[in-house]
Amino acid sequence: KAGVTQTPRYLIKTRGQQVTLSCSPISGHRSVSWYQQTPGQGLQFLFEYFSETQRNKGNFPGRFSGRQFSNSRSEMNVSTLELGDSALYLCASSLEGRGEKLFFGSGTQLSVL
Amino acid sequence: AQTVTQSQPEMSVQEAETVTLSCTYDTSESDYYLFWYKQPPSRQMILVIRQEAYKQQNATENRFSVNFQKAAKSFSLKISDSQLGDAAMYFCAYTTTGNQFYFGTGTSLTVIP
After folding, report:
1. Which of A10, A31, A43, A96 is the best substitution to test chain B (most B C-beta atoms within 10 A)?
2. Residue B98: its pLDDT value, please?
3. Interatomic CA distance for residues A78 and A66, integer angstroms
4. Is A106 an interface residue toward B (CB < 8 Å)?
């Protein structure tokens, strides 16, 4: 089985722009979660989607949004980028969520200039 | 609030020796799950071991084992016969059935040949 695939691997944007990150989960996995990883704040939960519905949301501003498609693929969007949004964005999938182990992608490294 | 604390930012171990990484957590939940993940320089988070809180028996996975002390809210990871490939950042994590993961700040493990 193919693992969790995130595209692109690297992104460079400027302040004020918006960005869309993509995540393809492991086949059969219906839960997709997103995490932001920074040296200062560590790993922080953004949101989780299950069967095209946002099931859980972390403490991030509304500029961060996401969606999940019927094939479980997920996208994350950040609008009006700020310098502080520079981070590694990790996507993870699991079968149903609910305490199962997460399988992570390699991440998208976003740099905001 | 749920928190996960890793008090050792850096650890080192001689190849073939044993090392223990510490983790404590805080929760008022009775049903939860604990994990150790490793993140090598490739950035991909890899599951090391998973423990269900209701199970008293400590989880083991080959050279990796945990010491789960529920009353003390402690969840340490023991790596036996350390190998060069074990060098990575190790994260302790906690989740409930809500599937939002809380991660510690990580312990950077160096393996000395």
Report:
1. A43
2. 74
3. 9
4. yes
- List pLDDT tens digits, range A27-72: 999 999 999 999 989 999 999 999 999 999 999 999 999 999 999 9
For chain B, residues with pLDDT lower than 70 are 1
pLDDT score at B90? 98
Cross-chain residue pair A43–B91, CB shorter than 8 Å: yes
Cβ of B45 within 8 Å of Cβ of A88? The answer is no
Q: Distance between CA B58 and CA A47 in Å, rounded?
A: 30
- Report pLDDT for A35: 98
User: Cβ neighbours of residue B96 under 8 Å, at least 6 residues apart?
Assistant: A99, B2, B27, B29, B31, B32, B33
Query: Is A60 in CB contact (< 8 Å) with chain B?
Result: no
Report the pLDDT value the prediction gives residue B99, as an integer from 0 to 100: 79
Three-class secondary structure assignment of chain B: CCEEECCCCEEEEECCCCEEECCEEECCCCCCEEEEEEECCCCCCEEEEEEECCCCCCCEECCEEEEEECCCCEEEEEECCCCHHHCEEEEEEEECCCCCCEECCCEEEEEEC
Give backbone dihedrals phi and psi of B84, rounded to 5 degrees, phi first: -55, -35
